[in-house]
Automatic annotation (TrEMBL):
It comes from Exophiala bonariae. One of its GO terms (molecular function) is riboflavin reductase (NADPH) activity. Pfam families: NAD_binding_10. Belongs to the avfA family. InterPro entries: NAD(P)-bd_dom, NAD(P)-bd_dom_sf, Polyketide_Oxido-like. This is NAD(P)-binding domain-containing protein. PANTHER family: FLAVIN REDUCTASE (NADPH). Residues 11-230 form the NAD(P)-binding domain.
Length: 245
């Protein structure tokens, strides 16, 4: 892991965000990490992240352009952010099951605030979490495996707001990359997330007839994959599906 890399982590207080922090803390050459969280959410963070000199905390909302700009900027300790990692996701709720709400506040904030401020701050790389809610190639649309097609119907029926949010996050990042060829984006899609080992393998690929994997992915292996992808850049401007074997 490159100790000179400076990450801006969005979604730091979620389960995957906490795992990201733990893995960053455990590496010998710790990267610089800015944690962007809503005011009042600091107690959800691992205590070590609040005291370790490789971490800093910036409070704000995703629609606060000044807070995002501050988070991306360097200071006397940190260089400017080199990569944004978004582990933002919709929180499960039964209310949209009855209201059929399909609002997308996270994706809207990425489009209106986060991505434009990244551009003005000359931050050109983002890795963002999504789910297998959409097909991003003609081959996927034609040959998505039946078990994955059936799996994708569950959130559409039971979590319409969360499903819409996660798909729109992918659409917004891809759209930004289409307009700005300097943006190095990766949207990684995940199935059911588990608390399994970080050492289990991760199968990354397109969701077509050749994709063979389980419907599960451990958060720890997901985070390990993200750190590897930052270094290897194997999926720039692409939408890999991730799952454990």
């Amino acid at each position: 892991m490159d100790s000179q890399q400076h990450y801006l982590l969005l979604g730091a207080t979620g389960y995957s965000g906490i795992e990201f922090i733990h893995q960053a803390l455990e590496t010998v050459q710790r990267p610089n990490v800015t944690l962007f969280v809503r005011p009042g959410s600091e107690p959800k963070l691992p205590p070590a992240a609040l005291t370790n000199t490789n971490f800093r905390l910036v409070l704000g909302s995703l629609t606060d352009a000044q807070a995002i700009k501050l988070a991306l900027a360097g200071d006397e300790r940190f260089p400017p952010v080199s990569i944004v990692v978004s582990l933002l996701g919709a929180y499960p709720s039964f209310i949209p099951l009855f209201t059929r709400d399909t609002s997308t506040p996270i994706a809207d904030a990425l489009r209106s605030t986060v991505l434009p401020v990244m551009k003005s701050s000359h931050v050109s790389r983002i890795i963002a979490l999504s789910t297998p809610t959409g097909c991003y190639s003609a081959e996927e649309a034609r040959t998505v495996p039946w078990k994955w097609w059936l799996y994708m119907q569950i959130p559409r029926l039971l979590q319409p707001q969360g499903n819409a949010e996660m798909k729109h996050i992918a659409d917004v990042v891809i759209e930004a990359g289409t307009k700005d060829r300097d943006l190095e984006w990766t949207v990684f899609r995940v199935p059911h997330l588990t608390s399994g080992s970080r050492d289990v393998g991760v199968i990354a690929g397109h969701l077509d007839r050749n994709y063979t994997a389980s419907l599960n992915l451990s958060r720890a292996s997901l985070v390990k994959w993200v750190f590897n992808e930052v270094k290897e850049k194997a999926w720039i401007r692409d939408t890999p599906m991730l799952a454990n074997p």
